[in-house]
Batch of 2 targets.
Target 1
Amino acid sequence: MKLVEWLAKSVTDDPRALRWFSEEGSDERIARAFKELLAGYEIEPGTLLKTTRMLEPGERPGRVEVREIAFHSICAHHFLPFFGEVDLCYEPGDRILGLGKLPRLVDAYARRFQIQEDLVRDVASEMMDSGHARGVRVRSRARHLCMCSRGPANTSAVTDTEFALGTLAED
Amino acid sequence: MKLVEWLAKSVTDDPRALRWFSEEGSDERIARAFKELLAGYEIEPGTLLKTTRMLEPGERPGRVEVREIAFHSICAHHFLPFFGEVDLCYEPGDRILGLGKLPRLVDAYARRFQIQEDLVRDVASEMMDSGHARGVRVRSRARHLCMCSRGPANTSAVTDTEFALGTLAED
Amino acid sequence: MKLVEWLAKSVTDDPRALRWFSEEGSDERIARAFKELLAGYEIEPGTLLKTTRMLEPGERPGRVEVREIAFHSICAHHFLPFFGEVDLCYEPGDRILGLGKLPRLVDAYARRFQIQEDLVRDVASEMMDSGHARGVRVRSRARHLCMCSRGPANTSAVTDTEFALGTLAED
Amino acid sequence: MKLVEWLAKSVTDDPRALRWFSEEGSDERIARAFKELLAGYEIEPGTLLKTTRMLEPGERPGRVEVREIAFHSICAHHFLPFFGEVDLCYEPGDRILGLGKLPRLVDAYARRFQIQEDLVRDVASEMMDSGHARGVRVRSRARHLCMCSRGPANTSAVTDTEFALGTLAED
Amino acid sequence: MKLVEWLAKSVTDDPRALRWFSEEGSDERIARAFKELLAGYEIEPGTLLKTTRMLEPGERPGRVEVREIAFHSICAHHFLPFFGEVDLCYEPGDRILGLGKLPRLVDAYARRFQIQEDLVRDVASEMMDSGHARGVRVRSRARHLCMCSRGPANTSAVTDTEFALGTLAED
Amino acid sequence: MKLVEWLAKSVTDDPRALRWFSEEGSDERIARAFKELLAGYEIEPGTLLKTTRMLEPGERPGRVEVREIAFHSICAHHFLPFFGEVDLCYEPGDRILGLGKLPRLVDAYARRFQIQEDLVRDVASEMMDSGHARGVRVRSRARHLCMCSRGPANTSAVTDTEFALGTLAED
Amino acid sequence: MKLVEWLAKSVTDDPRALRWFSEEGSDERIARAFKELLAGYEIEPGTLLKTTRMLEPGERPGRVEVREIAFHSICAHHFLPFFGEVDLCYEPGDRILGLGKLPRLVDAYARRFQIQEDLVRDVASEMMDSGHARGVRVRSRARHLCMCSRGPANTSAVTDTEFALGTLAED
Amino acid sequence: MKLVEWLAKSVTDDPRALRWFSEEGSDERIARAFKELLAGYEIEPGTLLKTTRMLEPGERPGRVEVREIAFHSICAHHFLPFFGEVDLCYEPGDRILGLGKLPRLVDAYARRFQIQEDLVRDVASEMMDSGHARGVRVRSRARHLCMCSRGPANTSAVTDTEFALGTLAED
Amino acid sequence: MKLVEWLAKSVTDDPRALRWFSEEGSDERIARAFKELLAGYEIEPGTLLKTTRMLEPGERPGRVEVREIAFHSICAHHFLPFFGEVDLCYEPGDRILGLGKLPRLVDAYARRFQIQEDLVRDVASEMMDSGHARGVRVRSRARHLCMCSRGPANTSAVTDTEFALGTLAED
Amino acid sequence: MKLVEWLAKSVTDDPRALRWFSEEGSDERIARAFKELLAGYEIEPGTLLKTTRMLEPGERPGRVEVREIAFHSICAHHFLPFFGEVDLCYEPGDRILGLGKLPRLVDAYARRFQIQEDLVRDVASEMMDSGHARGVRVRSRARHLCMCSRGPANTSAVTDTEFALGTLAED
């Protein structure tokens, strides 16, 4: 079964559309692209975070934020991408986490079918659970192709979601 | 009865103005443009919003904002457009709403004769009523052609209106 | 005869739309607004330009540009405004023109039913004719409400027109 | 046959991915979104352009540009959107074209499976053929989701294409 | 008595300065310019504001701001202009005011000999008195030619004044 | 004879306007401000420029530009200021000129009754004459209060003038 | 005794450096430049501020700020300039102060050997003392040449200082 | 032992890579570059800060901030640089510190193997200890090459860290 | 043999520096990071480019540019990264190339020891050879850590290189 | 002999100015700062440039530019700093030069008493002589404290100089 069959049956049977899919290897190439966009299911987020160092007893840590982490995700309702940036701020609990793993955590939850409201909640929860944070605040901003390509009110719209837990939920 | 008759009688009888309207189909084309600008009356806003998913018992939702939603409306006092952008922020009550419907809600209230003060109130109320939000804050900024095309003090002026209900009215 | 009659017959008979026009003086107020937007027909552009001083024999003049002249006009095809800015550059012929009259010249041609392509041509021609310029270049950029309020491809579109005569047509 | 069958067979069988598609009406909703993105096949571009007015004999027209026309298209190689803006500049041949139709022409060619190199060529050719232009230059800039969501070198990349015909090809 | 007499006696008797005033109609033209800049004395601000609609009993109104209202005024100490922008924010009391009248209110107080500290107070008081507002906040920013044209410390300086009354004085 | 006499007779006899001038020393303070704005008549521009060093025989000099030189001037037609910036570029003839004198040269010609077209010509000519330049190009951009404080088309307008001589007139 | 003697003895005896000072009048020209930079010692700041008008009994004044006042000062530790901008905000006590005098007050304290921490304190104290303010807040931002011309960490550094008294110290 | 030996054994034995290191003096040049990047170990931070002047008894000092101090550091985990800017704000305790020493303090801690979380803590502690501050807040923002050169989520990411002590920890 | 041995012998033996490398797996982690940065040696650039479609006989292609392609490379002289962006513009010869492969081509040449002058030449040559382009122009801009972390003149410096071949070398 | 003696005799004998210099080591600290600013005399520019690699016979090199090189210099006429940025562009002759040496070359000529016109000429000539370039273009932009701290026309002024040789002089 190939994507072009669905396309022809459910979307359009215009031959100018369908001829693109007659090329050898076309269906496989599309599948590879979507496998990359959905690669987050292969990752176990709970094992991603690494410890840079444990805090010493009584050590008061400062605040850490990794900003402007690019992400790409797919909206399952329309099978179309949404994409944008996440800002991830946390207050360490008993350890300082490896900075380079924070974008990977975002990536692991973004490369799935998602809704933007759950993306920030999933990342925040993981930071508390396997990251042992005292507090976390995750903000995202994104454009949704299912929204932008439609009526004129939607073209320019940007969506923000935010989720905070622990000490950073009290700000 | 045609628009040119009103124009000739009430505004100007300069033949250079009136000759534009002698073309076949001119009145119909103008009517079509205004029908589009007033299409909001055809929409029942209370049926627009869709539920993406219900919250689970005890689930604490984050905050969601769709920003920079373009709108075009008509000021009935001068029969001239005003247009700009709406930022719509809400805290979910018992459900997360479909993002793509929020610009449509704005559009449904904007494509009417409106005043900018009521536009933000109408959208905010609908979010509480049929959207079951815990709180909502709607901000708009717009330029009014009835204002901009007149005296020099007005040319650059931008108008902001804001309306908040529920938890977001307490900020 | 009143505008609301045309509106009710040709555009919408929704009572929420029509009630705005039941107020005393409503039709007159709208007519006044459109009289202002069409006031250019009252002005004879050929008499607007004033001479600051004549050039002396053999004097080589420099180049003069008045930029970012705001204008508001009406597209007769849809009875909706378009508006933006004009940049008007000229090389004096036998005289230097009063700077303050150049925006008025633009205004005189803009406050009519216009198409943006003719606006720049009309202003440029007048600068050559009654302004005795050696060369002139008129550029405009504008947004058209008949365009912006429709499909998503149009919302962001900006239109530029340009017309040059004399020495400045050779650049 | 449904999209989820292709997804399960060719991309991922993770139940967290597939459960999104078990909802009633899911496949139809996705098909509707793609029908909109591919609606250009329903339009005959050669009939879109309208004449605002014919030039008078010997009339020298200026240059006209509609800039920042938003478009959304689909790359057939990866079944993923690309989107951006088109700038369309032309020199009238024997007529001035209706401005509002130029974004629709772009839309008609963009809402298909396209490659960005052909989009500018198709629009330019149509301007010469049914628009009777003396010259035309079409520029586009876009981001491709098939490119941006992959390796780090690609995330920020923007693609420009340009095509010119007639007098504007000689610049 | 003419302005040039004062100029010659009190400022400079350089013939290169005085010859500008020998032209017929020079004094009248200057007087007309100053009449426009001082036209605010002809206006009764208490009659300017119009009611768009009365609030319904128990109706909670939102906040309204007209921003970036351009103004030009004259500093009486040096007979030189100052100019800039006013932002006017109010909370309606028992009525929503016509937006287009707010810039006219600013204009009525600016086109007088003023000091920038009193301009914001005058506008704010009028909004409470004849506008029946619950609260008002008026901010201005301006450049003063009497200041900018002097020592180097002053050239770049911008002056802000602010005045608030009622509920908006409590922020 | 005092300025207030002219004001009362020719502009306005509103007592709220005139009372500002009853203060002791008011006329003198205004005269001092205008003396400063007209101080250029006291300066002999031909003596301002200084030589940093003479070029050596056969030395090829580069290009020098002092940009963004602020100036304030008075338009004699309306007795109102205009102000902005000058960019002064020159190619040395037989000498390199002291940089600090170039803004003073602009100042000497600006602090007079001027028209913006002559300001750039006067500065350019002086650079050729007493500065022995091989070429010079002077550009100015300014806002005119006599223009900005009037109809809406004028508020935003900026005026540019340019004058070039010698090798820089050939660019 | 001349500056070049100190230079030769304490800094460098490179003849390429010293030859610049052999020119007639060199030492006097440098002394004049430094006299201007240190001219603040000639001014008695306590006499600078002027009263525009006294407040009426019970009159509640608004807030006034003169922003972006340019200043140049000298750091005595390295005999090198520092320069930047001051923002001066005050709440009137019993009088409104002449706006034009506020930049002069900054200038009087800046044109001395200063440290940036004391500059804001000196200006703030004077506003309370001879300006009879209820509150004052002075902010400065500057670049120090003694800092910028050294190691790479310093090149980009900007220094801010702030000092508040009275009601504005409580914010 | 030379760096190229480690490179060949542990990273790549591609001759196109290794040939760069065959040049005479190559290893020494690399060592010199790293010595500079690690020069902070040679500095005793506790001796860096200098006193500009002691506060007088009862003197209330304002707030001082040196912003945008550039730094370069090395992440020991990947032997790759990270770099960015530090903003260092303090409230003097009993003395005002020499401004020029604050960037040097940052430099002394940055030119080591560091983690960005400790850099702000180290600088803040030193300001309290040897700088006798009442309060200090240190913010940094940086890009990490170990992060940016990897997966697409990381390319654009910026990391912020913040640490505050004393009175500024209470904000 | 481990990197820490070289470090201790050639750069610094400060125990605070060396202790970072005592952790298990430290040397392997650094090697992995450098393997990624040098992964370009594993790629055969001549096989990367793909054909989207062949041009038809006589077909005139437009111009294509992929801009702002991020790259990271290593300067072999100092074993330190340089990084920035490449703009790659080409005119097709007999085929249109797959857009997504152009960033990969840049990546293949950047992830090596490189000098920025050769990077643009290598990419341009490959576009002519295996891409069969009629012309190509490659521009890069980058920051070099070996340069930025040293004396103050270097901190802000940005390096541009450019290389053009075929029809685009004639511009 | 000390700097304070010159200051007291030639500039000001105000004790508030002179007391700064009574501190032990004050004269030495100032001398050290000026030694750094004049350190260019210690450097032989002809030995600075290094060869990255020789071009191969027939190799066509591209164009190389190092932009935004910060510099600080002293104007000998007023003993006051001027500072800004240099852009240095060259076309290689027989060799590619080490990028890191180009900012050092600028530094070597800037850290002297200079005039900005000669700075660009000196750097350009050295690039041709010891750098064996085919062409070079050097541009600088700077602010002069001797200019900025004086009359209002000068405060904002920026000075550009440019010098080109060889193939880049022909552009």
Target 2
Amino acid sequence: MIKLQKKTVDAIAAGKLEKGDVLQAAALSTIQGAKRAWELIPLCHPLRLDSVKPEVTLGQDEVKIRCTVTARERTGVEMESLMAVTMGLLTVWDMVKTLEKDAAGQYPVTRITEVEVEEKRVDRGC
Amino acid sequence: MIKLQKKTVDAIAAGKLEKGDVLQAAALSTIQGAKRAWELIPLCHPLRLDSVKPEVTLGQDEVKIRCTVTARERTGVEMESLMAVTMGLLTVWDMVKTLEKDAAGQYPVTRITEVEVEEKRVDRGC
Amino acid sequence: MIKLQKKTVDAIAAGKLEKGDVLQAAALSTIQGAKRAWELIPLCHPLRLDSVKPEVTLGQDEVKIRCTVTARERTGVEMESLMAVTMGLLTVWDMVKTLEKDAAGQYPVTRITEVEVEEKRVDRGC
Amino acid sequence: MIKLQKKTVDAIAAGKLEKGDVLQAAALSTIQGAKRAWELIPLCHPLRLDSVKPEVTLGQDEVKIRCTVTARERTGVEMESLMAVTMGLLTVWDMVKTLEKDAAGQYPVTRITEVEVEEKRVDRGC
Amino acid sequence: MIKLQKKTVDAIAAGKLEKGDVLQAAALSTIQGAKRAWELIPLCHPLRLDSVKPEVTLGQDEVKIRCTVTARERTGVEMESLMAVTMGLLTVWDMVKTLEKDAAGQYPVTRITEVEVEEKRVDRGC
Amino acid sequence: MIKLQKKTVDAIAAGKLEKGDVLQAAALSTIQGAKRAWELIPLCHPLRLDSVKPEVTLGQDEVKIRCTVTARERTGVEMESLMAVTMGLLTVWDMVKTLEKDAAGQYPVTRITEVEVEEKRVDRGC
């Protein structure tokens, strides 16, 4: 998730950001993150991903991104889903920068945190 | 930072990982993350970066990555440094996957957390 | 522009597409197209783009994309803006595929057309 | 296709362009366009393409590009072929820029038009 | 340079290769190699290149590629020119594969060799 | 291989280079080279690579890189392995630049040479 100031979350919810619809931009970046994990993580190989499903939700003072990635592969896809949510969260940050910065140009509140693998499943039948 | 099991941190320190030197791989990924932020963050433009300096350190049960990015630009480089440390942390995760997974293939401990902008400086003279 | 069936344009306007907000996705792709023109057009060099402004509008039976690109460069930026609108239009196509295909899986109506450089300006003062 | 001035088409045919062989450069860009569609079209996934065959032909006052893409996939490859011909046409534009611009630096004639899916075939046997 | 069998060089000269014009394809790859050096060489940063000029020539039993790269930069551009000629030579190899392989599918003759920096010049006036 | 001055090889062996561990950086670049061959070699298609194993060794006055690439594909993977070792060698060059340059900024000794396909094997059973 990315922790934000409440005023920023309110602005996102109201659709009032100059840079556009934050939640959709984040969803699209999440998908691209999964597709391109192999390029930026040195020992990752490109995998055939069957589906990449982002869920971007607003909380009180945060944006949460969950991404479910499936593939019929011998290798797990946890790096793809981690890269996915990370790119989505960075995209959120970039789009709300102006609101989050204080008078000194610093970010007292903003941080990305709790990026984890919720669940990893293997269906051995396939 | 990325939180890890203590046994994993010990293995990194001892240089005993099959996949290679985790700290250097993370440092190289950190640099590439800064260089390529503009590709994966939709509204980022490519900037001329003067320097990208990663610092990868081991803690008790975590790896910390700090990255200092400088540029003579009108735009700040916080997204470049955020992307940098994020890619470094994801690279660490990928390289220690085997140690961090439990018997059920899950990651009970591993998570990326506290990714923030420590300090943003502007030298108006330039 | 991309010519579409009227029913597709209506669905876009109503925000009823399964794949998401077509106009914003197209705007984001337009920006990325400008940023990456140099990668896919062999003799293009990367340029420092000052601004990339997409305008995505719905017509009766088409989506129009205009993109204004500015740069303080010795070289013109027409290839960047052409690549930009092209990527936006292709993104629209991809997002409305299901609606545009007929029973035989063909595209009787859909086509990208009239991609041109509306105006190229040079301010010699810079 | 890309509409050009007749003098430009004549120069291409005579192989007299400073920037090189336009038709081959266009063919190579066409192939790369197909390979990289998934990178620039947000909801496209990388597919295994079996063959990508460009045909670049000169008309009276235009260059036409057709590209046949085949793959043994569950998904159609129309986006790959559309991206392919588009990149080929943009490459042509870039290579003939100097000839097409008028004294005011504008492009009165040049435009990309009629980009469509000629035929989409599915062989259910595979 | 890339050492080849004489019959292969003859076929290139005669323009009789199925895969197309080898020399131009190599020239285009050379240019792209220079543009993209920073992506694949970890500690390279993107530089503004003023010009990238490939020269692809046929010898008796080899193809030679020289590339002159200029930039108004504080950093040298030797990595860009080395990457450039390397990508050109690899492209040649790929295009003549069928001719170079022997009956056992091996490459008894083919090799890339003598890739060096002929001259590096710095004009301190700029 | 890349030919170097003996003093450079000694510095690599002693781990005394400012830019970091040359052998590991080269190994990581080698892997990335294999993964990305299809992007920079025009007629190469992305292949599913099963394994990419780099071996980076120091000689008296050179660094040798061998890379074994395996894939269950109809196409050979020689281009992937050639691209792999080439990127590894270029990475070595970049990391030892300061040591290899003479007082005039030239490279009297440094060159990449003898890049070849040692062996290509096909297991027809798969």
